[in-house]
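Troubleshooting log. The previous structure file for this entry was overwritten by mistake, so regenerating from the original sequence record. Sequence copied from the archived sheet and checked twice against the printout by T.R.
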Amino acid sequence: MFIRTLINTLFGAVVPIVIIIIILASVQYVVRQQHVAIIERLGKFHGFAGPGLHFRLPFVDRVFQIDLKTEDEHMTFDAKTADNVTIELDVSIQYHVDSTNMNLREQSGVYKSYYMLQDPVSQMQDYLADALRSQIPNRSLDEVFSEKDAIAHAIDEVVAHKMLEYGYVLVTTLITRIKLPVEVQESMNHIIASKNNLESATNDANAARAKTVIAAQAKAEAMAAEGKGIADQRIAIARGIKDSIDVIQGSNLTAEEANRLFEFTQWVDMMRGFADKGSSSVVLPSDFRESQSMFEQLVAAQAAPEPGSEAQVEARRPLHDDTGNGNHRSH
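Regenerated output below.
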């Protein structure tokens, strides 16, 4: 009897405690950092609650927490360029719920993100696909690669404006990879290799041409300098010869003797030049006294009339014989 009374007493004390614990558990709730709570009262939107400890009416209020952290999604799209090449694009997007205007209640981003859009990722994927297929067909394959950032910026503006109507902020849109068909990639690699080979050959040809031009210019300058040196040398020789002749003629020698002496001096200098060059073959007269006849022949050649002159014509004209026998004699 006593035990039954004790059990009934304990049961009567525990039940109220349990009930109180259940009520307290259903009344209080905690909102985590970087989250916001949406409170519904009897199924109708009632308000928002920020991070911290809050209380609600049990069995009347319902609480739904919304994550405000930035999310990252990766998507893949197919598109065809203006030059009829089908490419595959990997797109990365970052987005989060707009919590800047929660004081607007039903017009806030948090409200729209929860009550207006069931699957935000699928909705953004559809918008991105539509925006990409309006940008890629207007560009060639080369332009897609060179204007990748511009394309991403263009689709980001379009999709960001549409997603903001549903309470989502699109932070950035990135085209992380452009995948080409295997045959197109091999063709592009071949084109790039050919272009590089052509540039290399052109550079080599230009270098060779520049080298040839420089060598030719250097040779021309050297020849010009050599020609000037030879001309200066000949002028100096001519002046030396003139001075030598003037000195010789200034002595008591006759003009013929002066010329012979100068010619002999030149002959001696020539022979000395042969001797300085080393062993060489030189034809000399058997009797050096005959060299005088050689100089006489040179002087006679200098004194000989020029071809076609009156003296030469007169010398060739036949002379009449004064004996009257009709014979002629010539010089």
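The first helix runs from residue 2 to 27. Archived copy saved in two places this time.
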